[in-house]
Amino acid sequence: MTNTALILIDIQNDYFPGGAMECHQSLDAGKKAGLLLDFARTHGIEPIYIRHISTRPNATFFLPGTKGAEISDLVSPKAGEKIIEKQYPNSFRQTEFGSYLQKRGVDNLIIAGMMSHMCIDATTRAAADLGFACILAHDACATRDLTFQEGTVPAPLVHAAYMGALSGLYARVLSTDEIIKGGIL
To answer: What's the pTM value of the predicted model, to 2 decimals?
Structure first.
């Protein structure tokens, strides 16, 4: 399956319990992403890790050189696996990501990671706009509560809204089990 890649976006320690920007159910999502990683490695699908390093002034997480900015042990890269660093939610913006996929002949992306409402959304929309066929593993993604005006939107509703918005035009939104057992590739 050389034309398919698994994209693991920002599965970094700051999003897990004890991190500077903990996401709702991040451990569950990280474990599902780990299952996808095992599946990809077994089936000749290249994993590509996207790692956010925050370089903006007053940043509070993903700070360069910190444990929080490291990729989680749940999806540890092996020697030689590609890691792309970014500074923006869209993984294509000012990175080698697009050219790397093009050089590898990748047309299909399986996407997992954090946060659903930010980097997953921005990258999935950009990928679809660039002509990639995207499969989004909804249970291998996590997010946080958001505030709007005077209210709080709970993380499960934020996640559902973004998965619903991406489903169809931008991606096939499936569970990890559907991807692994469904023979969809």
So the answer is: 0.96
